[in-house]
Specification:
alpha+beta; Bacterial polysaccharide co-polymerase-like; 2 domains; 4-stranded antiparallel beta sheet; 10 helices; 69% helix; rod-shaped
Length: 316
């Protein structure tokens, strides 16, 4: 008995059953063309955008684009989009269903996708039967993404701003304390400017002594400089250091407070979504081709088996 998969046997079977095979292929062609039409399969349109991450500066092993993907895959963002566009009604899944969340998220994954490109951008794609809704959903995802990142960054930046504000307030207390000490020294001794008065008193004492004048005012100033001058000088230097530190803290507080309250974008749209004028699915020609090829293969196997079984029976 010849092998069932012998080429000659297969060719003979195909020629013998050629009309039957042709009819099967024709039926497959017509059926696939009809059943892949809009009456049976709702056409869906695709809208796509590509965004580039900006102002993120993450100190981690993840790239900035991977950081965007983490936000896009968050459940909070998904359900925000689902609620905003009533996707439970679009996908015909009622919220009373026992496995509502599982089913709605499964449909979400089938219709909405995002991926990282070779150029470190993130591609966001939405498939929907309404091309306008698909475009609007992509736009909304980009906005929700910005808002989600802004909320997290705002909390961190505000926390840092409050830390620097607290340190700044402490520094102002220290400055007030030093200024009080300096004011008391000035009131008690008449010292205003340590270095200027030390130079002036020394020169005045020397001039008065040389000319036989009154040296008492200069001596009083020098005595005050000797008694309180060191404390005055130390506190003036301390006040200068405190003011420099306070200025640094003030600048850092303003920087983080501005980031926490300012309108900062974390995505740069390099490809804006648009309303598609051509459906993305179903691809009718592909369905027809695959159906016809599948039917042809099954027909080939079927007629070969029929002839083989008949030969086996006749040889018994």
């Amino acid at each position: 008995m010849e092998n069932i998969f012998d080429n000659n046997r297969i060719l003979q079977s195909v020629w013998k059953w050629k009309f039957h095979i042709a009819i099967a292929l024709l039926i497959a062609f017509i059926a696939s063309a009809v059943f892949s039409g809009p009456i049976f399969i709702t056409p869906k349109f695709k809208s796509t955008a590509r965004v580039y991450p900006v102002n993120i500066n993450e100190a981690s092993e993840e790239s900035e684009s991977e950081h965007l993907l983490e936000y896009l895959q968050s459940t909070d963002l998904r359900f925000r989009l689902i609620d905003a566009f009533s996707l439970d009604e679009v996908y015909e899944i009622t919220k009373k269903e026992k496995y509502y969340q599982t089913w709605i998220l499964d449909e979400y994954r089938k219709h909405i996708s995002y991926k990282k490109t070779d150029f470190e951008t993130v591609e966001i794609s939405v498939l929907d039967e309404d091309p306008f809704r698909a475009r609007d959903m992509v736009d909304s995802l980009i906005n929700y993404l910005n808002e989600a990142i802004f909320r997290e960054k705002s909390m961190k930046n505000m926390e840092m701003a409050m830390i620097y504000k607290r340190d700044l307030d402490k520094k102002f207390v220290e400055i007030d304390s030093v200024e009080t000490i300096i004011d008391d020294i000035r009131k008690n001794t008449g010292l205003i400017d340590y270095f200027a008065q030390a130079t002036t008193a020394t020169r005045g004492l020397m001039d008065a002594a040389a000319n036989g004048g009154n040296t008492k005012p200069a001596e009083q100033t020098l005595d005050a400089l000797v008694e309180e001058g060191g404390l005055m000088r130390r506190n003036l230097k301390l006040l200068e250091d405190f003011e420099v530190a306070a200025d640094t803290l003030r600048k850092r507080h303003e920087k983080y407070y501005s980031r926490a309250t300012g309108a900062i974008s974390y995505t740069k749209v390099v490809e804006h979504p648009f309303v598609a004028d051509k459906k993305a699915s179903p691809i009718r020609w592909l369905i027809v081709v695959l159906t016809v090829l599948g039917t042809g293969f099954i027909s080939l196997i079927t007629v070969s088996l029929i002839d083989y079984i008949r030969e086996v029976k006749s040889s018994l």
